[in-house]
Design a protein that fits this description.
By secondary structure, the protein is mainly alpha-helical. The chain has one domain. Helices cover 89% and strands 0% of the residues. It is built from 2 helices and no strands.
Length: 55
């Protein structure tokens, strides 16, 4: 669970930095996109942890 949260935070920060470097500014759209991507990455990682732990 903690690994999934750390991954989500890292993906959010990384995605936001990449958008900032590419566009030279932060917009609400890029922040929302980064947040959604981070949430999806965290959820997928958590599901993968669950599947692997049951095998």
């Amino acid at each position: 669970m903690i690994q999934a949260f750390v991954l989500a935070v890292t993906v959010f920060i990384g995605w936001t930095l990449l958008d900032f470097v590419k566009k030279k500014r932060l917009t609400k759209e890029s922040l929302i996109g980064s947040f959604i991507t981070a949430i999806l990455a965290g959820v997928v990682w958590f599901i993968m942890e669950l599947i692997i732990s049951f095998l």
